[in-house]
Amino acid sequence: MKAIKRFKKISDYHKITNLPAPEHPLISLIDYSQVQYPEDISELKWTQDYYTIGLKRNIAYKFFYGQQEYDFDEGLMTFVAPDQVMSLESNPNIGHKPSGWLLLVHPDFLWNTGLTKQIKQYEFFGYTINEALFLSEKEEHMITDLLGNIKREYQSNLDKFSQKIIISQLELLLNYAERFYERQFITRKILNHRTLDELEALLNNYFKEDRLTERGLPSVQWIADQLRLSPNYLSSMLKSLTGMSTQQHIHQTVINKAKEQLSSTLLSVSEIAYNLGFERPASFNKLFKKKTEMSPLEFRKTFN
Known about the structure:
The protein is built from twelve helices and ten strands. Helices cover about 45% and strands about 15% of the residues. The model is unreliable at about 60-75 (pLDDT under 50). α3 packs antiparallel against α4 (about 160-185), α5 (about 190-210) crosses α9 (about 245-265) and α9 packs across α11. It has a five-stranded antiparallel sheet with strand order 2-9-4-7-10, covered by helices on one side. A three-stranded mixed sheet has the order 1-3-8. Strands 5-6 form a two-stranded antiparallel ribbon.
């Protein structure tokens, strides 16, 4: 089993990758071609106390994005929040040297700015590596320019405006990333619709089983695991396609199944609630009324 190491400081990453000490203790832009991981890096898992934004390219091997295979022949961005467990596996094409940039930002650098809380609202920090952001050449130039602006600012003589300027560049970078992810959802629309079809089939099969009273309602995490996606990415993708999150899709399926039973059986509302995986009928009543603006009994009366 791999040991788990904690990188508390940005300098910890510099040390393990054989890089010079960072020029600023709380923010660092690293040339990825200069990164030298130790030979036993595949034996290590780590968590970190800082954010990592990566832009990498020219990594000559394939990986899976959702259910489809892609090459690293475009600019590729990844976003890692603090406390996520990370690990690296041996590169099967070790002769190819990667290139790109890694921006490390410690939360302390964001202190007393709007990004302190706002950065947690960017859902792509919860995506996994196989849900990375692919950039066009034009988009990559835009991101590279912003990274360069950040580096030039923290390398210059720091003054009372430095943090504000860097934060504004970082916020612009994150907003562009949000826009580019939305574009990616659109350009991969066929694949995403396939995932939507799988979700609907998965939910329908789940509610057909007789084990709902034992298993309860499906969780967002369980759905995401079945579809081989992270919960955040799945919800973001669904919102772009349907306007509803994963949880809302689950609730919609529950309501549809409830309507079927209310209109075609003589089961009591409590029996229907238990059949659909609710521990308490009151929770079922509350959800049904929220979604339909009628109580289950009021809905049933419309069929009498």
